[in-house]
Amino acid sequence: MLGYCSNVHAATSLEQMRAALSTHAVAVRERLELDGRLPLGLWLPASAMDSVRASGHGELKNWLDANDLEVFTINGFPFGDFHGDVVKHAVYRPDWTDARRSSYTLELAELLADLIEPGDSGGVSTVPLGWGTAMDADAVTSAAARLRDLARRLEGIEERTGRCIHVDIEPEPGCAIERLDGLAHFFERHLLGGPDEERIRRYLRACVDCCHAAVMFEDLTDGIAALDDRGISIGKVQVSNALDVDMTGDAARRALEDYRDPRWLHQVMVRDERGTRFHEDLHRAFERESGGHWRVHFHVPVHVETIGPLGTTQPLLVDAIRMLRDRTDAPDWEVETYAWSALPESMQPASLAEGIAAELQWTRSRMTDEGTR
């Protein structure tokens, strides 16, 4: 199933998210001229969950049905206000050493179990433990213990509802787990090998964010192989596109200046003859680097291959679709371009719905071209 992620919409309450979906998601469905419901990857911050509890899961399901929207996955990565004036490192808090993270994730899993159809399965993507510098060895061990306990609770949800809800860990540059091979090693060292190994494999999975893998210069073939070698399933593919820039000359540098953003963190990997270097935000790369090959964690529209003198990682995204198209463990595909509001004016579509619809059309076309569905 292919849909878009609602973390593109600013919301701190259930009411605000419903208003955004009424405005934008309904318009996306109309633009796509769908006969059935529009698949949606839902994001709700923790601040919205009181309203969800008060009104009940059934009320939200009825509202979605009435608007021809179908939630098939949930993005549980941003816990707080993802569209605040300054988000930056706050998006990784609370991390997986904190009980609030596990409680929030479990609540999202319970919600998803009530939104999908009987017998179906679905995933909740989550932060890869926490920001790297905040996660020492003891913190990683603590996070693993919380995830192990979560798997037990997810098993209880399936026993109660007949729906398998898995939590999908999403590697991200700068975090405790940055790459898919790093995720495989985390599973091997901290989660697998015990009496609950079968449970772990069923309820804890990988989220493949194509933008993140590209920024890290990760060979996706090797990353997927590392997961497969350890029997780790892919729960979700996030269809996403990063900036890919040859910083030779002034034109690219001037164009990239427009992508300085006070809200979100835009990690940068720089590769040149001296090796590969990480900078945790774009302004730091500007301060310390003069050239090289830059990959920038800025989610740009997936249907865009070049932006003036700037390239994107779209060719790698197409390769990822080709690689993952036939996998039975990767049924959920979520377009995740949350940064439309931070794009330069020249990149803004006439409406957000127009931009999202174009992304979904491009992705569906590529998936069909590659024989996915």
Molecular structure report:
- It is built from 13 helices and 14 strands.
- With 373 residues, it is of the alpha/beta class.
- It has one domain (2-239, 312-369): Divalent-metal-dependent TIM barrel enzymes (TIM Barrel), CATH 3.20.20.150.
- The strands form two sheets. It has an eight-stranded parallel beta barrel with strand order 1-2-3-4-5-6-7-14, surrounded by six helices.
- A hairpin with a 2-residue loop joins strand 9 (268-272) and strand 10 (275-279).
- Helix 1 crosses helix 13, helix 5 crosses helix 7 (197-203) and helix 6 (180-191) runs parallel beside helix 9.
- The longest helix has 25 residues, at 137-161.
- It is globular, with a radius of gyration of 20 Å.
- The mean pLDDT is 97.
Provide a short characterization of the protein structure.
Strand 9 and strand 10 form a beta hairpin. This protein is of the alpha/beta class. The chain is built from 13 helices and 14 strands.
Structural class: alpha/beta
Number of H- or I-type helical stretches: 13
Domain tally: 1
CATH class: Alpha Beta
The CATH architecture comes to Alpha-Beta Barrel
Shape: globular
- Beta-strand percentage? 15-25%
Number of strands: 14
The helicity comes to 40-55%
What is the radius of gyration? 20 Å
